[in-house]
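>> received
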Amino acid sequence: MPIDSIKVGIDSFVQLSQGQSPAERAAHLLEEIELADRVGIHTFGIGEHHRAEYLASTPEIFLAAAASRTKNIRLASAVTVLSSSDPVRIFENFATVDLISNGRAEIVVGRGSFVESFPLFGYDLNHYDELFAEHLDLLLKLREQVNVYWDGKHRASLTGQGVYPRPVQTPLPVRLGVGGTPNSFVRAGMLGLPLTVAIIGGEPHRFRPLVDLYRESWKRAGHAGEPDVAVHGLGFLADTTEEAADIQWPGYQMTFSKIGAERGWGPTTRAAFDAQRGPTGAFLIGDAATVAAKIRHYDEALGGLSRVGIHMSGGNIPHDKQMRAIEILGTQVLPLLKH
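>> returned
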């Protein structure tokens, strides 16, 4: 059964490789987005991080640069850490990207899986969820009104000030990025926001109860239209499946060994990595046919998707291999999904 209604995107945290200069990585990122645009990829998302190994502390600046060098691809965050960001500034920045791109900007907001931004910008981590709820409320009002009246606990109130510039798209698209917290799925449904589920391990079908909870919450709230579910998953492509796995593994091992040491996880093993590449595992790693089949599996397991974003950060992956992966995704996977 064709599933060409699913949009396929690329997500990146703009990870640095060992020995690579930040300027070189920035140049490579823009080349990657340009290629993704040429081969028909729907979306390129850049995730906000404030760590030494990631370059994108301000995704919207990279997206603005990419907007001037592309024609069709949608340009999104993946995600914007809204809890520790000023919603007014976020709206202004993405409205500007929307103007430069002539209506191709999107904001994916989340609470963030890392917490470095909270002390960096003077926010109390004890207010982690409260900050997110308050900032999201303001962001949604900003896209509805030019002159905003709003009262909050953690930010100065707005008393009718105008917020400019205004974007091309009305309203400016906002998606809610979530992990595995039921309350986050309910929140997205009650607010009538599109949902992006980050699945970085396990089996996709295990997220089905949470996705169904989102859909039920959407209907209970009485929103028009259909709930919109997208997925963010780890992946990589090459001409053969084994080549894709061998290219991806060193960077994956380095990244998750570091994160695991910080969070008390067990060791990162090649066996566990390979298990996630199986037919029901989370990883979208392989040749074109393998990745197309995995996208179909995600769609079936979660009851229908609007979009799949494949996270290919580029850490310790040679630039030419990254470019080849993007080429395969656009020129081979997209046609396979139509047949």
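>> The chain is about 45% helix and 15% strand.
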